[in-house]
Amino acid sequence: MLEDLFKTVTKRFNGEEPAEPDVPMFKCPRCSVSTPQQKMTDLGKVCPNCKYHARLTAAERIAITADKGSFEEFYHDMCSADPLEFPGYAEKVTELQSKTGLNDAVVTGKCTIKGSSTMLLVMDSRFMMASMGSVAGEKITRTFEYAAEHKLPVVAFTASGGARMQEGIISLMQMAKTSAAVQKHNEAGQLYITVMTDPTTGGVTASFASLGDIIIAEPKALIGFAGRRVIEGTIRQHLPDDFQLAEFQLEHGYVDMIVSRRKMRSTLSHLLKLHGYTAEPKKEVL
Ligand SMILES: [Zn+2]
After folding, report:
1. pLDDT for the residue 9
2. CA distance 159 to 136
3. What are 251-275's pLDDT values in tens digits?
4. Which DSSP letter does residue 252 get?
5. In this structure, is residue 283 part of a structural domain?
6. pLDDT tier for residue 80 given thresholds of 50, 70 and 90
7. Which of 77, 108, 199, 249 could covalently link to 121 via disulfide, CB atoms 3.0 to 4.6 Å apart?
8. Are residues 165 and 250 in the same domain?
9. Is the residue at 3 inside a domain?
10. Do 163 and 88 reside in the same domain of the chain?
11. What is each CA distance from 100 to 96, 107, 197, in whole angstroms?
12. From ligand 1's centre to the CA of 202, what distance in Å?
């Protein structure tokens, strides 16, 4: 016992005392190492031990991407209707609105990234796995239309379980609608960068998320359409272990580059500047 006490005193003396037990900790689901929450926040929620990229809320993503104080949110007040009167849907939406402070799964607006003006669109997976219903689809569409009209690029951080089944066919229609809006933006000669984060799946992958001029992914992000079990059950074959991970998608040409969170902001800034988006609004493309 005395020996234990001696060890504790020595540790304290040497400053090796582990964090106080009441400090909130984040336990990494991949390597199981615990890190103080505050340190995780400072690191952009990336595990310092194994580089696991934890999911971010829309506000956290905007904070580490946009220039400080530059983000101006658009279409904030749009709320989902319940067109099918789907059992429990309206209650679920209300509950999530008060829990997350969001009105729906997509936050969109205008900001600057190291001085370059851009539209920024961020999906928040806390809100029904950021599924795309009529409101998410409409906000995404308006973002591209606004960007086309004002000659701005779009940077979209995607994270979604797909279309919002509680809105039935109306949610599926958003796939075509958002894709058409991307096309309009493209015809206006503007750049669209997608950043696929964990997870980007279903109808979002099958529509606007995959239509970026440049498709970036975060390391080890799950990217796919249908889930592994569904595909294995259909084709009756075992799929590779890294199937649908960002690295697999890069190897197969679906993703253009994998960028760690630490380098994301500077990479986006370089790409924007490379395409002529400096601090001034872009001049007419010749
Ligand atoms: Zn870890």
Report:
1. 47
2. 12
3. 999 999 999 999 999 999 999 999 9
4. T
5. no
6. confident
7. 108
8. yes
9. yes
10. yes
11. 6, 12, 19
12. 27
Cα of 115 to ligand 1 centre, how many Å?
Answer: 33
Q: Looking at residue 239, which CATH number applies to its domain?
A: 3.90.226.10
Average pLDDT score, the chain: 92
Residue 31 sits in the same domain as residue 139? no
**Strand 72-74 to strand 106-113: parallel, antiparallel, or no bridges (unpaired)?**
antiparallel
- The residue-averaged pLDDT of 117-137 equals 97
What is the distance in A from the centroid of ligand 1 to the CA of 54? Answer: 9
pLDDT at 185 over 90: yes
Examine the domain organization and report whether 42 and 89 are in the same domain.
no
- Tell whether 116 and 194 lie within a shared domain: yes
Given this model, what pLDDT does residue 285 score? Answer: 58
Same domain, 165 and 74: yes
How many whole angstroms from 183 Cα to the centroid of ligand 1? 39
Q: How far is the CA of 43 from the centre of ligand 1 (A)?
A: 12
CA 56 to ligand 1 centroid distance, Å:
16
Tell me which of 283 and 72 has the higher pLDDT. 72
104: its two tokens: 């729906």
User: Per the domain annotation, does 286 fall within a domain?
Assistant: no
- Asked whether residue 284 is assigned to any structural domain, the reply reads no
> E-assigned strands of the chain?
25-27, 34-36, 72-74, 106-113, 116-123, 154-160, 192-200, 214-217, 257-258
